[in-house]
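Fold this sequence, please.
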Amino acid sequence: EVQLVESGGDLVQAGGSLRLSCAASGFTFVDHAIGWFRQAPGKEREGVSCIDNADDSTYYADSVQGRFTISRDNAKNTVYLQMTSLKPEDTAVYYCHVLNRSYWGQGTQVTVSS
């Protein structure tokens, strides 16, 4: 059974930092690119960042470029999202997703207060 379990979401003040984790199981982790997405209330889900499996190349949405860093630990089957300089507009439920597969986690809530 495929499982993606996100953790690390919290309430934080603007300017603060959080590190999200996505622990994966049930599939061959090293064979897949993984992405982080987020969905704010009343808005569509949007891509935040992703990391390739072949060369660890990364992508960031313009809104988080320079503030967020994605990484992966293949030995632990885990993807991380280090978030710094958080803004109220970063408030959302954050999900990890196996690209090109229908695998999604349950999400973790990030709330940034002003």
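The chain has a mean pLDDT of 97. The chain is about 0% helix and 50% strand.
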